Amino acid sequence: LLSLPPLEMGFKYFELYPQDKDPLWTNPCDYSRHLSIWPANRTCDRLPQFLIVGPQKTGTTALYSFLSQHPSIVSNHKSRKTFEEIQFFNTDNYYSGLDWYMASFPSPEKPNMTLLFEKSANYFENEIVPKRVAALLPRAKIIVLVMNPAKRAYSWYQHQRNHKDPTAMNYTFHEVVTANDMSPPKLRTLRSRCLLPGLYAQHLIRWLDFFPPNQIHIVHSDELRNDPINVMHYLQKFLHVHPYMDYSQYLRYDPVKGFFCQVISDKQNKCLGKSKGHTYPPMGPEAEQHLRHFYRKHNMNLSKLLASFNTAVPQWLQTELKEAV
Ligand code: A3P
Question: Where is the Sulfotransferase domain (predicted)?
Answer without folding.
Answer: 48-297
